[in-house]
Every structure is written in C-alpha cells, then in structure tokens.
Write a structure and sequence with these properties.
With about 190 residues, the chain is mainly α. The protein contains 8 helices and 2 strands. Strands 1-2 form a two-stranded antiparallel ribbon. Strand 1 and strand 2 form a beta hairpin.
C-alpha cells in the first residue's frame, strides 16, 4: 500500500522514488514463528530473489515497475506465488521471463540479505517493511518504518501525507507514531 501511495506522491510532489529490495523473509530468518506465517515467509524468497536478479541485470530503475507488476498479480488479482505469475509480471514489466529462474536458487541470497541489511540498518531491527528514507534537515537521510496506510491516499490527500511524513522526519528526536490497525489492506 505504501508503494502505491509513493507512486501517487510522485504525481503531486517533486519526488523521485528510488526503490530498494527488503524482505520479511530475510527479516524473520531464524525466528520462531507460527507454522502458517513461516510457510508464507518461505514462499516469499522467490519473488525477492527475482527482484534482486532483475536489478543486477538491468539496474535498480526496474525495481518499481517489477514490484508493481508482482504486487498487482499477488495482491489485487490473488494469483498464486508461482513461476507463471512471476513470468507474467516480468513480461508486463518489459523484462526477460528467464529472470524467473532466480526464484528457485539461493545464488542471489547474499545480495538480497545485503540489500535488506542496508534498508533495515537505517531504522533498526524492531520494525518491518515498508521503510522510507528522506533527506533530514541536515542533509542526512532519516528513515522510518511506514507509513502503513490503507487504502493508498490519492491526489492532494497523498500530498498531505507526504508533507507530514517529511515534517516529522525533519523533527530531531522524532521516532514513532502508531495505532492499532482496524482494517485489512484495501487494494483499491
């Protein structure tokens, strides 16, 4: 949802999103988790391996496009996390479908872990995804978990949330705003 919001922000503010690969599968590696959640995380390795392979072969600029195509298929269309779905996303993103081979190999795992570590180091270990980094008041990057928002705001609502996000990021000592989620994801 946050990625959809960022795409909307790019339409209403002078923002150029740079995508980066993080993974809940990597974040939760080695943790004792309920079996159903562990199964989901085990399945999560394939798509992020493909994202890493695509970035290595074609540059980080392809990440947003491929991330969108994967998300549309998995979340909006409810398609299964399988090779055919990944191939369709690759094709729609204008990338070679052979990149789907990366899903079934651990050859990209070191790069995936390094990419994840780069993102999580900005915010600390006790958060998940999404992570957003913006320029702080002194020019250093300020990063935080979130915002978690559903459905993704559109138009001026997206712009106001962005403005507020940048505002709190520029406040020295600001760390967290949180409330209990009362609705599931809405992929409108």
């Amino acid at each position: 949802m946050t990625s959809r919001w960022m795409l909307e922000v790019e339409q209403v503010r002078p923002v150029d999103t740079r995508w980066h690969v993080m993974s809940l599968s990597v974040l939760n590696e080695g943790r004792d988790l309920p079996e159903k959640y562990r199964e989901l995380l085990d399945q999560g390795w394939g798509p992020v391996r493909v994202l890493i392979a695509a970035a290595q072969a074609h540059g980080d600029k392809v990440l947003g496009r491929l991330y969108t195509e994967l998300g549309l298929r998995f979340h909006n269309q409810g398609l299964p996390n399988e090779r055919a779905t990944i191939e369709a996303a690759l094709e729609a993103a204008g990338l070679p479908v052979e990149l789907a081979d990366a899903a079934d190999t651990d050859a990209y795992d070191d790069a995936l872990r390094a990419s994840h570590r780069e993102g999580i180091t900005l915010v600390g270990e006790d958060v998940g995804t999404p992570v957003i980094a913006v320029d702080g008041p002194d020019g250093d990057r300020v990063a935080f978990f979130g915002p978690v928002v559903t459905p993704a705001p559109r138009g001026e609502a997206a712009a106001r949330l962005w403005d507020g996000t940048v505002l709190v990021a520029s406040t020295p000592g600001f760390y967290e705003i949180k409330r209990t989620r009362t609705a599931g994801p809405s992929f409108e």
